[in-house]
Amino acid sequence: MSDTRRAVIAGPSGASELFQLLRDGNPHTRAELAELAGLARSTVGLRVDELLELGLIAPVGEAASSGGRPPSQFALNPGARIVLAVDCGASHQSVVLSDLSSTILASDLQLRPIADGPERVLQHVVETARALLASIGRNERDLVAAGIGLPGPVEHATGRAVRPPIMPGWDGFDVPGWMMDHLGIPALVDNDVNIMAIGERTIAFPEVDDLLFVKVATGIGSGIISGGSLQRGAQGTAGDLGHVRVARGDGVVCDCGNTGCLEAMASGPAIARQLRQQGIPAETAAEVLALVAEGNQAAIDAVHQAGRDIGEVLTTCVSLINPSVIVIGGSMAGAGEHLIAGIHDVVYARSMPIATSSLSIVLSSAGSTAGVIGASVLASEHALSPQGVDALLAG
Amino acid sequence: MSDTRRAVIAGPSGASELFQLLRDGNPHTRAELAELAGLARSTVGLRVDELLELGLIAPVGEAASSGGRPPSQFALNPGARIVLAVDCGASHQSVVLSDLSSTILASDLQLRPIADGPERVLQHVVETARALLASIGRNERDLVAAGIGLPGPVEHATGRAVRPPIMPGWDGFDVPGWMMDHLGIPALVDNDVNIMAIGERTIAFPEVDDLLFVKVATGIGSGIISGGSLQRGAQGTAGDLGHVRVARGDGVVCDCGNTGCLEAMASGPAIARQLRQQGIPAETAAEVLALVAEGNQAAIDAVHQAGRDIGEVLTTCVSLINPSVIVIGGSMAGAGEHLIAGIHDVVYARSMPIATSSLSIVLSSAGSTAGVIGASVLASEHALSPQGVDALLAG
Predict the structure, then answer these.
(1) Do B350 and A258 lie within an 8 Å CB cutoff?
(2) CB contact under 8 A, B319 and A243
(3) pTM for the model
């Protein structure tokens, strides 16, 4: 065996590097792969065999041959493995199995407070994952990674929540360690709005590199994709616009202790409170949405003004981040054009023309699946990375 | 010759890929490179010879040998090529030659308005570059790339200014095309505050991945480094915080036509105007700084209040971007602790504790060299990239 050939075989990630060329989803022949990789066909042949054996790639049709054995084409085989995707809200867990291209294979939604603590919530996730695997006739060996969204600040590198305000028991809890102990798979953990931003981009804006996803619900937060990458910031709190002060908010006290926070003015509960002050009974975002749907003018006006408050903060986001798309999601997005109109009014009046020249502000099209799709993308990206494929090759 | 060996030689960027391993600046032996690259020593030998011939790497000492020919060590040779770095302000051009590790070899600073237009300004840059090359005994063949900062929004991908307010004649001008025609080198063009952010990080915070550089001078702007990358946004206007509205600014009209912009409240000329309204003669940032240095209490108070206004906007930046370092630069940074104190007061009082738990707010240490160092880094990064090294190998 030549030195070169031995080095190729012994290379720490030769097959996983070749696999990166196949991740585009298009079929390739061995000859194309050899040219793309700058490697000899014999080398490519060995690596393709490894990936075929793992099932990560599969033959696709037959390319035209110039005689002799027809050169097969290969492509990513997204069904070869399964990822677990979890979106934990304040009071629900959405648990999904998907293939490696984020197509949902099975799903489950349950009401359960995140305040139950990590052990009980994650135990439920693991049990649900096993039941879902059984329901589609697959087993735990097919499961390669998990993506998990949590409703609070998360240090993505370690997968731990950091001083989350509504998650008692979770502060510093080692979610990836627990998942490795109980399911034997790596877990990628992120803030719930961050995974919604990734999911929305995957579903509706795959070509957009600068996207801001704003969740308006019980709280208000955002996920920032800039230059094609999710931006998490130094402590994982990037996008936390709920506690930015708005002009109208002087004197209104927020749960955080400060005054005038956007969340205290424009969240679902804040709008409900403003309606109660006018003698209109409303407690929750759902009740506000019901009033808007009935055509209640006070509710419509309150939602429009909330849009203007959100627009005030988004104007600053437009200056700072210069996105080309702002997506409004979360339960209050159910107020539709009434909310968007208020946002539009302020953002276009206040921003520099260059920054709004090609800016779209739209309602979420991914809706309630944005979170689990984003979590699935996080998990699949890891599974298909050189590191993830190396782990499959090794084990 | 084996298939593998032929493929390696014919590979489009074999040597430039190997070179990426040598960019870390550390010495490596052929054997180490073979292991790192997962390639045969014979292959590595051919590629090392190509890079030695170009001068991009050079032998460094001798590693301990296990007998026979001693295996040489190689490392990046930063002096092998030169880059041109230019920082254009509203009224000056700073032109510098540096080596590939951004060490400045020669420099020139001239007062010349950017409003002279691109042809005259760039002609001056080219003539200065030639004179500086002659002064250090190098020639144009050694020059491999240019980095250029401009005082307005720039579409980095095309190197063109986009509707810049203070740069008549520059809108849409093809700076890289002009530089290629006149000096035969690629040019990387960016906004002046963006290159200052890159320069400040290179000099003072090489380990920091989330840094906000704020320039406070005639205008106010910022450069955002998030997740280790400069963020430019969809139209190249990311970081444009000069026209964010501040609470104190109600009714104050900005040059942009809106009211209450940060720039209309806290820039050098804005502070001077506030002092004139108190009967204190001041026109420019320099005059304000002189008053502060003399201990003029009205000037000190005005600078402190400007710091509070800047702090109001930076509080939102902290929520949105979650940087670990905010650097204050530009001429008004000369007011030092008076400015920083105002910023501190507001940012720490208003931000969520998690976002400020490990946040530093400091004065620029790169000072007036931040821009040219950043421009040099942009140019060197390009020259040392696979694409840049391929160009050198091809021609």
Answers:
(1) yes
(2) yes
(3) 0.89
